[in-house]
Automatic annotation (TrEMBL), chains A, B, C, D:
Species of provenance: Anaerococcus lactolyticus ATCC 51172
Protein name: Amidohydrolase
Cofactor binding mode and count: The Mn(2+) ion enhances activity.
Example GO biological process: folic acid catabolic process
Signal sequence, start to end: none
GO cellular component: cytoplasm
GO MF, any single term: metal ion binding
Length: 423, 423, 423, 423
C-alpha cells in the first residue's frame, strides 16, 4: 500500500494547480473515489457558499487556464471548470454510529518548481508539469492520504460504524477556500473532526497531537480610485491615488498593538500609477492582519478599515476593500480530546508531541470551531517530516514515509473512536 | 508738526499691545481724536461683526491683561476692555462731495523688544513697556499718521468737501481683525479708499503706488481629540491624536500645487500629548494656506479640510478646524486709479514706484475689494523706509522721516480728489 | 512601632519631591539613619556614576527649587542640593556572614495631589506641601519601611551576622536613577537582594513573591534642529523640523513587531515650531520602547535610532537622541530562591502568591540582574494593598497596614537567611 | 512637394518606434539622406556620449525588439541596432558662411494607436504597425520636415553659403536623448540653431516665434532594496522596502516649494513587494521634478536625494537613484534674435505670435543653451496645427498642412540669415 500511496502523491504532484483552478486535481480525485466504489460524491457549485468564496481569480483567468488542456470525464465537469473546485465524499456504513469528518487541502502554490538535479521530484521525473504551480506545501501528500483513507474505509466498511465525510478543500493557501466549504450543507453534524499538516518543523516519525497557536488572519485587497491629471500642468485637477496608498500603508503599519497577544499587519504589495508625469488615478494594496485571537484580528481589521477610509478622504478618492482570504483561530481548544488521542497514539507506538505551536494561519480552523461549537470533538495533527527545503520554497520536498504515518494515525483514531466514542 | 508726529509715534510705541488687547492704544486714540474736536467717534462692539472676529484670545487672557493696569477715561471703555478694540472716526465737512476712507492698523506683535544699546527705541527711552508686545511692523507709525491726518482734516475742514472716515483697525497681524471691521456698518459707501504700509523693502523717500501681489491667506487652528490609554498595557483602547496630527501634517504639506500661481501650505506649529507612556489624547496644529488668488487659496483650504478629516478618521478621532485669521487677494486692481495717483504724486515731487509686489498677506484687501466692488476706487501705498532690522525682528526700527512722507501723500490725494474726483 | 511607621510615612508624604530633586527627602533620611546610630552613610556624587544618570533636570531648574526653601543640617548637603540625591547606608555586624541588600525608591511624581475631602491625606492633613509633586506610587511607604528596617537591624545587631546595605534610590519614575546607583561602588558583592513595591493590583494582606513580567524599556528624548524661514516667501531656505518630526513619529510607530514577544513603541509627546507662518526650526519627541526582553527592547532602540536619523536626513537637519530613562527585564529569574522564600513566608503565616506579573518596567531590575550575575540571589516582592485610586492617580492612597506587612517580610527573610543561607 | 512631404510623414508614422529603439526610423532616415546625395552622415555610438544617455532600455529588451524583424541596408547598422539611434547629417556648401543647426526628434510614444474609424491614420491606412508605439506627439512630422529641409538645401547648395547640420535626435519623450546628442562632437560651433514643435495649443497657420516657458526637469528612477522575511513569524528580520517607499513618496511630495517660481514633484509610479505575507524586499518609484529654472529644479533634485536617502536609512535599506531623463530650461533667451526672426516672418506673410509659453519640458533646450553660451543665436518655433486629440492621446493627429508651413519657416530663416547674419 505504501508504494501505491507514494505513486498517487507523485501523480498529483505533477498536476499541481493553484487555488480555484484545481481542475485536473478535482477531476482525478473524483475518478479515484469513484473507482473505489464510493457513490455519494458531491462537487461543483452545490458544495460551496458563493458569498463566502474568497480570492477567486477573474473569469478570464479561469477560462484561459481551462482552454489550455483537454480533460475527459464520464461525469459533468462544467462547474468544476468554472472554478468551483473541491470534492466532498460521504461513506455511510449504514450502521448506527458517529459521523467522522476529515479535511484535506488540495491546492498548490503559484510558484515554479525547482529544476535542480538535487531536487528529487525533478531527478525522479515527477516535477510539476504546470509552470505556474507547484505543490510546495505538501497538499499533494494530504490529498493522497485522503484517497487512501477512503480506500481503507471502503475496504473495512463492514467492520466500521457510522458515517465518514472526506472533504477535499480547494484554496487553502491565502485562506481562500475554507470558509466556503466549511459552510457547505454537505458537512453538517460531524462528531469527530480531523485535520492535519505534513512537516511544519517536526521531524519524520514525530506526530504533533492537537495543534495550537493558529493565528486568526484576514487578507484584504484595497483599491484607491482617484483622477489622473498632468502633474505639472494641472496638479489641482488630480486626485492622487499614490499619495493615499502611501498614507494608508504607513498608517496601517502603526496599528499592530494589542494587549491580548500577538498582533500583526503587513502591506506586502503596493502598486500605483502608470506614468511618471501623471497624478496617479489608481493604486492598490495587498495586506493581511493576524492576531492571537479573533478579538485581536477583528480589532485590526476594523482599524484597518478606518485608516483606509481616512486615507481615501485625505485625497478625495473612492476606495474598495475586498476580503481575499480569511481564517479564524481556534475558539475553544478541546484539550481533553487531545489528551485522549495522544494517549491512544502513544499506546499504538507513535512518537507524539502534544499541542505543537502552529505559529501561522490555516482555514481548517473554520471546521474545527464549527464542530466544537456543535458539541463535536475536533483535532489537528502535524505529521512530522524531514524536509529538503522549507515550506513555500521552490525546492520543498517531504519524506514520503510520512504518508503512511499520517494514514495510520487516522485509521487508529477511527478504530478507537468506533469502540470508545461517546454516544 | 514733524516733531509732534514723532512724539506721538513714540508714545504709542511704548504702549505696544497685541491683537484684541489694544486697550491703552484704543483709549488713547479716542482721547487724541476727541481732543481734535471730532465728535463722531465709534468703538466697542458696535463697530464689529461678532461672527467675523478671528483669532480672539480667551476671555481669561483678556481679563488677566485688563487687570494688570488702571486706565482712566471720561467715556465708556467697558466693551473695549472686553476685547472689542479699534476705533472708527468720521469727519463730515457738511459740504457735498466724496467719501474718503483711510485704514490704519494699530496692533503690535507678541514678541519682546530688543534691549540692545544699538536699538534706538531702547537707547532713546521709548522701548515698549509691555514685555509681551512690540511694534515690530510699524503700526505705531501707521496709526500716528492717522491721528495727524485727522488733525489736518479738522484744521482744513472749511476748505474740504465730503466725508472722511478714519478706521483704526485692531489685529492686522495674523489677519485677525480686518474682516470684522471691514463689514462694519460704519464704513459703507466709500468713494476713495487708502491703505498703506511703512517699509516693506523700499528705501526712505520712495513711495510705492498701487501695491500688488497681496496673497490670499487663511490661518487655521486644528485640534484632534482622541482617547488616552497606557501605551504599553492597553494600546487598543487609545485613540492616538499624535499619529493623526503627524499624518495630517505630512499629507497637508503635499497639497501646495496649483496651475494658477503660487500656492503654499505651512504647518508652523504642532503640539501633541502630555506623557511619554500614554497614547496622546489631544494634538493641535497651527497652519496657514496662501495663494496667488482666492481660487488657489480656497482650493488649499478645501483640500486641507479633507486631509484633516481623513486623518481624524484614520485614528477614529474627533476634530475641529477654526479660522484664526484670513485675508483675500485683490480681486480687481484698479490700475487706472493707480496711474492717476502715481502721476499726481510724481507731479508733487514724490519719488514713486508703480505697483510694487507685496509678496505677503494683508487684511486691508477686505476693504479694497469692498470699495472696488461698489464702484469706488481703492489704493494701497508703501511708504519706503530705511530699516534697522527686518519686519517682525525684535530690533525692527524705521526711519521716522517716513511719517511725514506718508502724511503728505494722503494730504495730496485728498486735495487732488477734492478737485478732480469723478462726481 | 506600627504607629511610628505610619507617622514616618506621612512625614515623607508631605515633603514629596520629584526625581533628582529629593532634597528634603534625602536629607531627612540621612538624619533619621544617623539618629539610629548608623555611621556608614554615603550620599552625594560619590554614590553615583555621573555618566549613567538619566533624565536629570537642567541646573537652572534644580537651582530654582533649591532656592525656594531653607534646610539646616549638621552635615554637608552641597552635592545633594546639586541634584545628587539618594542615600546608601551600610550596617556591618562585624560578624562573618552574608551581605544583604535592600532597595527603596524615594521619588514622588510631578503631579498635584488631590484636594478632595474624600482623599485621606488631605482630610487628615498630610497632603503634599509641594504643589509640583505627590507620592502617587507609594515610594513614601517604601522608604519608610527602609528606615524602620534599619532601626530593627540596629536594634538586633548583636543577634545578626553579616552586612546590611540599605539603598535609598532617587528617580525610579521614568527609570531615571536605577542605573546610576546600581553601578555605585558602594553596593558591590551582595549575596541576597530584596526589592518590593506596594499595591500593584494585589489586595491588602497578599504578598507577591518573586515578581516576574518586568518589561525592558528605554525612554528617549529626541530633538530635531533645522532652520527657520518664512514659509511663504522663502520656503527653500527652511529646514523643516516639523516635517522630520512627523515623519519620524509615523515611521517609529510602525516598528513594534518582534517574534520574541511583546514589543511596544510610543511617541507620547510631540512639540514643534513656534510660529504659524515660519518653517519650524525645532521639534522634539518624547518616546519610549518596551520589550518582553532586552533583545526585543534593544532591537526597538536600534531601529528607532535609524528611523530618527533617516528622518533628520530627509529634511537635512541635525538631531539628538538622549536616554531619559532605562530599565532591563530580569535576565535569569532565580525561581528556586523564589520557591524557598515563598515556603518560608507561608510557614510564617503570610498569604502569598508566587511570581505575580508586573506588566510594567522597574529599574530595580538593574540590581536584580547584577546580583544574580555575581552568583547572589535576588527577589522582588509585591506588598498587596487596597488602593483608593490607581497608581499615578492624584487620589492614590494605599492601606497603611501594608507598611508593617512589608517590614515583617524583610525581617523574616533576614532571620531565615542568617540561619539557612548558603555559605 | 507638399504631397511628397505628407507621404514621407505617413511612412514614418507607420514605423513608429520608442526611445532608443528607433531602428527602422534611423535606418530609413539614413537611406533618405543618402538618396539626396549627402555624404557626411554620422550615426551609431560615435554621435553619442555613452555616459550621458538616459533611460536606455535593458539590452534584453533591445535585443528582443531587434530580432522581431529583418532590415536590409548597404551600410553598417550594427550599432544602431544596439540602441545607438539617431543621425547627424552635415551639408557643407564649401563657401564661407555661418553654421546652421536644426534639431528634429524622431521617437514615438510607448502607447497603442487608436483603431477608431474616426482616426484618420487608421481610416487612411497609415496607422502604426508597431503595437507598442505610436507617433502621438508629431515627431513623425518633425523628422519629415528635416528630410525635406535637407532636400531643399541640397537642391539650393549652389546659392547657399556656410554649413548645415541636421540633427535627428532619438528619445525626446522622457527627456532621454537630448543630453547625449547635444554633447556630441559632431555638433559644435553652431551659429544659428533652430528647433520646433508641431501643435502645442496653437491653431493651424499660426507660428510661435521664440518659445519660452520651458521647464527644467529631471526624471528619476528610485529603487529601495531591503530584505524579505515572513511578516508574521519573523518581522524583525525583514527590512521593509514598502515602508521606505511610502515614506519617501509622502515626504517627496512635500518638497515642491520655491520662491523663484514654479516647482513640482510627482511620484507617478510606485511598485513594491510581491507577496501579501512577506515583508517587501524591493520597491521602486518613478518620479520627476520640474522647475521654472535650473536653480529650482536642481534644488528639488538635491532635496529629493536627501528624502530618498533618509527613507532608506529609516528602514536600513540600500537604494539607488538613476537619472532616467533630463532637460534644462533656457538659461538666457535671445529675445533680440526672436524679434528679428519674428519681423522677418511677418514680412514673409506668416501669422506669428511672439514667445508662446511652452509650459512643459523639452531637451531641445540643451542645444539652445549650448549655442547661446558659445555666442550663437538659438530659437525654437511652435508650428500651430489643429489637432484631432491632444498630445500623447491615442487619437492624436495633426493637420498635415503644418508640414509645409514648418518647412517654409526654416527656408526663410536660412535665406534671410545667409544674407543678413552677423559675420
Amino acid at each position: 500500500m505504501e508504494k501505491d500511496l507514494i505513486e498517487t502523491r507523485r501523480f498529483y504532484h505533477k498536476i499541481a494547480e493553484p487555488a480555484w483552478m484545481e481542475f485536473k486535481t478535482t477531476i482525478n480525485i473524483i475518478k479515484d473515489l469513484r473507482s473505489l466504489g464510493i457513490e455519494n460524491i458531491s462537487y461543483g457549485r452545490k458544495i460551496h457558499r458563493e458569498d463566502l468564496i474568497f480570492g477567486r481569480p477573474s473569469n478570464e483567468k479561469i477560462k484561459a487556464y481551462k482552454e489550455s488542456f483537454d480533460l475527459e470525464a464520464d461525469f459533468d465537469t462544467k462547474e468544476i471548470l468554472e472554478g468551483y473546485t473541491g470534492v466532498i465524499a460521504e461513506i455511510d456504513t449504514q450502521k448506527p454510529g458517529k459521523t467522522f469528518g476529515f479535511r484535506f487541502d488540495i491546492d498548490a502554490m503559484p510558484i515554479r518548481e525547482s529544476q535542480s538535479v538535487t531536487h528529487k521530484p525533478f531527478k525522479e521525473g515527477f516535477i510539476s508539469e504546470n509552470p505556474f504551480a507547484m505543490h510546495a506545501c505538501g497538499h499533494d501528500g494530504h490529498l493522497s492520504i485522503g484517497i487512501f483513507l477512503a480506500k481503507w474505509i471502503m475496504e473495512n466498511k463492514e467492520k466500521l460504524t457510522g458515517k465518514y465525510i472526506l472533504i477535499f478543500q480547494p484554496g487553502e493557501e491565502g485562506l481562500h477556500g475554507g470558509k466556503s466549504i466549511s459552510e457547505s450543507k454537505y458537512i453538517q453534524d460531524i462528531d469527530y473532526f480531523f485535520g492535519a499538516h505534513i512537516g511544519m518543523g517536526l521531524p519524520s516519525g514525530k506526530v504533533g497531537v492537537g495543534t495550537t497557536g493558529f493565528l486568526a488572519s484576514t487578507k484584504l485587497d484595497v483599491i484607491f480610485r482617484g483622477h489622473a491629471s498632468h502633474a505639472s500642468a494641472l496638479p489641482e485637477e488630480g486626485k492622487n491615488a499614490n499619495l493615499a496608498a502611501a498614507s494608508a500603508l504607513l498608517n496601517l503599519e502603526t496599528l499592530a498593538k494589542h494587549s491580548k497577544g500577538m498582533a500583526r499587519i503587513n502591506v506586502g504589495v503596493i502598486r500605483g500609477g502608470t506614468a511618471r508625469n501623471a497624478i496617479s488615478d489608481e493604486a492598490m494594496l495587498k495586506m493581511e492582519t493576524r492576531g492571537a485571537s479573533h478579538e485581536v484580528n477583528d480589532f485590526l481589521v476594523k482599524r484597518s478599515g478606518e485608516v483606509i477610509k481616512g486615507s481615501a478622504i485625505q485625497y478625495d478618492l473612492d476606495y474598495e476593500i475586498k476580503i481575499a482570504g480569511q481564517a479564524p483561530s481556534i475558539d475553544q481548544a478541546n484539550y481533553k480530546f487531545y489528551d485522549e488521542i495522544d494517549s491512544l497514539l502513544k499506546t499504538k507506538g507513535f512518537d507524539t508531541i502534544k499541542s505543537p505551536d502552529f505559529k501561522a494561519s490555516e482555514d481548517v480552523c473554520y471546521f474545527i470551531n464549527k464542530v466544537n461549537e456543535k458539541g463535536g470533538s475536533a483535532i489537528h495533527f502535524i505529521f512530522g517530516s524531514d524536509l529538503k527545503a522549507g515550506h513555500h520554497n521552490t525546492a520543498f520536498d517531504f519524506d514520503e514515509k510520512t504518508l503512511t504515518t499520517g494514514l495510520n494515525v487516522f485509521k487508529e483514531c477511527i478504530l478507537y473512536l468506533n469502540k470508545n466514542g461517546k454516544s
